[in-house]
Design goal:
heterodimer; A: alpha/beta; 2-enoyl-CoA Hydratase, Chain A, domain 1; 10 helices; B: alpha/beta; eight-stranded mixed sheet; 14 helices; 8 strands; 49% helix; 16% strand; globular
């Protein structure tokens, strides 16, 4: 029998990056929307965590029908009349239409396994989850709401950092949210923060890391400076797990990595430990 | 351009001061002069060229750095070293000294003058260890009732592999949280580059000042240009778009006052620049001296919590 060459010519170039949002970037399995949603948008093959929208996140955490949204109608203004390639107002309008959200965070009251809590859930789909005046204000109001009602605040972060289009006022959302968390602390209520991919820049450098308990999803990037910036400026060789949740756990920066299917149960345990009101 | 809310506030305070009988004497007329000056500034909107001139002056390598001011501002300076755990970061200096007769703790980023010192001080970009040193010294000040003065001059926190491993983001947050808890008067002044998270880490103060030619921004002009225009060469355009100059920061209510510099910039006459800076800091500390600690903390948090524009 003749030798048949069945080897595949791969060359040196890596496989082209998958384009479809439902194709797993890690194992290239492909899913229908309903399959992924049923699996909490975690790849059933390899466990890769796909991005999760804020509404879906709330549905996965809050008891059915318990979520009461707050400050839903807050909108960003354009204090600098910022214009890069397009006006900021246009980017905002476009993000609002494509996401159905007013900005990159949703806050509100909820119960989880019957215990009261306040939720503050970021949404990366809205301008990369960037933090401008609205995100800062809503996070602050979530702190106040939790303090007033005597319940813990659970935040899930997913953000590229401060929103450049709001200039220095975006930077001021760092101290603003820090002050709000300090007020929450003085009221005696805990902050539990879950870092979803990615939690970087200004959000990592403010309220996200001030949680009494810090959790992260597997593979979440949580670095202050992005890998590209670090490489460009320092010319250092980056470790494979640079800035990832796994590295941060090893270096003692977070308490635990919790896969999404176990997140609700973990938060339920924590609410019990902090004696959240039934 | 319609007057900004900040301008209206200044106008109102100015009006009130003018109509008051001259009871307060020199103090009051000083206020009057200060508000009038700031109002005049607001009316001269900085042009794109002026904004870029600020960027260049803020980064001028002859510009006085933190330790240049320390030697001109403070008597009996005693530098404190190390974060008590891991390292002594040269990009952040901290210590105690006498300012106009009172003991203060001073923290600030420090850039280097020659190549060797620049490398040692990482161009004023602190590692987490630097912020931990600053936090330690601020907490020391709190225990002993010393006011805290911070001088901000950094392109940003250091973006290194070890810095990330040692929790750069979390440390910047923790440093702000320490400042939000202090029960002593705090005054921060941006004396050069107020670069993003690396700057705000030591700038959550009762009063935030900015030198005339300093810049304060969420990202460097080059970084912004890289992300939005995909071309670092568009830095000038980026700076014009996000307006990091002192006048705009005052207008947005981000800083409480602008500290004058000698004609041509602080580097032309460091002694005079230091005299003006000292005057401004002492004035703020005098105003805060009799406010109880709890009240300072409450007002400080309320001030930062009010920042932002939304509808």
């Amino acid at each position: 029998m003749a030798n048949v060459d069945v080897s595949v010519q791969t060359g040196d170039q890596p496989a082209p990056p998958p384009k479809h949002p439902n194709t797993c970037p890690s194992c290239h399995s492909h899913y229908r929307d309903d399959e992924l949603d049923a699996a909490l948008r975690v790849c059933p093959q390899c466990g890769h965590h796909f991005p999760m929208r804020s509404r879906a996140r709330i549905a996965s955490l809050a008891d059915d029908g318990s979520f009461v949204e707050e400050a839903a109608d807050l909108h960003s203004e354009d204090p600098l009349a910022f214009f890069d390639l397009r006006p900021y107002t246009e980017r905002l309008a476009e993000a609002e239409v494509s996401t159905g959200l007013a900005d990159a965070i949703v806050i509100g009251q909820a119960t989880l396994d019957g215990r009261g809590c306040e939720l503050a859930i970021m949404d990366f789909s809205f301008m990369g989850g960037s933090m401008g005046s609205v995100v800062g204000e809503k996070l602050s109001r979530a702190c106040d709401s939790a303090a007033e009602r005597g319940v813990p605040l659970i935040s899930v972060t997913s953000s590229g950092g401060a929103r450049m289009q709001e200039g220095i006022l975006a930077l001021m959302q760092l101290p603003k949210t820090v002050c709000a968390v300090e007020d929450l602390r003085d009221s005696g209520q805990p902050l539990i923060n879950v870092m979803a991919h990615p939690t970087t820049g200004g959000v990592l450098a403010s309220f996200a890391t001030l949680g009494d308990v810090l959790l992260a999803e597997p593979g979440a990037l949580m670095s202050f400076a992005g890998p590209r910036v670090v490489q460009q400026i320092t010319r250092e060789k980056l470790p494979d797990d640079f800035g990832l949740a796994e590295q941060n756990l090893r270096f003692g920066n977070i308490d635990a990595i919790v896969p999404r299917p176990q997140l609700r149960e973990t938060l339920s345990t924590l609410l019990r430990l902090f004696d959240a009101p039934v | 351009m319609p007057p900004s809310e900040h301008e209206l506030r200044l106008r109102e305070r100015l009006g009130r001061l003018r109509s008051m009988p001259l009871l307060g004497g020199a103090k009051l007329s000083g206020d009057l002069l200060r508000f009038q000056k700031q109002l005049d500034r607001l009316q001269q909107e900085a042009t794109d060229e002026e904004i870029w001139r600020s960027v260049e002056l803020a980064r001028n390598d002859k510009r006085p750095y933190t330790l240049d001011y320390v030697e001109r501002l403070l008597d009996d300076w005693f530098e404190l070293h190390g974060d008590r755990g891991n390292a002594d970061d040269g990009a952040m200096v901290a210590g105690l000294g006498k300012l106009d007769g009172r003991t203060v703790a001073l923290v600030g980023q420090q850039k280097g003058r020659d190549i060797k010192e620049r490398a040692e001080r990482r161009f004023g970009m602190p590692n987490p260890e630097g912020y931990r040193k600053a936090m330690r010294v601020m907490e020391l000040a709190d225990r002993h009732g010393f006011p805290v003065v911070s001088l901000v001059d950094t392109p940003g926190a250091y973006p290194g592999v070890a810095a990330e491993q040692h929790g750069q983001g979390g440390t910047i947050a923790a440093s702000q949280a320490v400042m939000a808890r202090l029960a002593v008067p705090t005054v921060a002044c941006v004396i050069g580059e107020g670069g993003s998270g690396g700057a705000i880490a030591i700038a959550l103060a009762d009063r935030v000042l900015m030198q005339e030619n300093a810049i304060y921004s969420v990202i460097s002009p080059e970084g912004c240009a890289m992300i939005l225009w995909r071309d670092a060469g568009q830095a000038k355009k980026a700076a014009a778009a996000f307006k990091p100059d002192a006048v705009h920061c005052l207008e947005l209510g981000v800083v409480d006052g602008i500290v004058e510099e000698p004609e041509g910039g602080a580097h032309t006459d460091p002694d005079e620049a230091a005299r003006l800076l000292k005057e401004a800091i002492v004035e703020q500390l005098d105003e805060l001296a009799d406010v109880p600690g709890d009240e300072l903390r409450r007002l400080r948090r309320a001030k930062f919590r009010s920042l932002g524009v939304f509808a």
